[in-house]
Amino acid sequence: MSEREPVIVFALFPGVTQLDFTGPHQVFSRLPGARVILASAAGGAIETDGITFAGLRRLAEIPACDVVCVPGGAGATDNAIGDDAFLAELRRLAATARYVTSVCTGSLVLGAAGLLRGRRAACHWAWRDLLAPFGAIADPGRVVRDGNVITGGGVTAGIDFALTVVAELAGRETAQTIQLAIEYAPAPPFNAGSPETAPPAILARAEDHNATARPRRRQAVMQAASRLAAG
Fold first, then answer.
1. Residue ranges of the domains in the chain?
2. Which of 5, 85, 125, 183 has its CA 20 to 30 A from that of 132?
């Protein structure tokens, strides 16, 4: 590996939220010389959000990387944090990486792998509090850096996150050139993209939607945290 030819690995799992990694992938794929690899525990194909992504590498086949990134994925994150084989491969690659990263609830997976103890980290706003059982410090930032750990908030924050990482790898001018190339100049039609700005009725509606998933996710997190503490 070299500074000019970084290897960037997305550690994926079935049911991952596609924009969590396709947004950053679009940015990283424009980084000159970069090798961007999609991989999962089993390799082959995974389905997510009604889209099938084929030709994935097996994580075990990748000896090392410069950046490892874990996206999130609605209920699928709960399965990932309980998958010991997946977490073991993630820990192995993280030990080789210059940057250990995530988008959305991917930070819960990093936490379950024991990679966030004492670290500040971002997460989707609805699940940020579940970082604490892993010894992480929840941070409301859209992109949060703590040492070599760089984490992005929910879903669309992945683009901001990827531009931040590119600036670290290749400089601010390269990151800005990529930003211009993909015409990333967000101007959302509504000011409802965070719990702080969303109208109260919209926030309540979103929280009601998440309420059914919260018990299962909390249970998955607590079980993963217990295994981590015991190990």
1. 7-230
2. 85
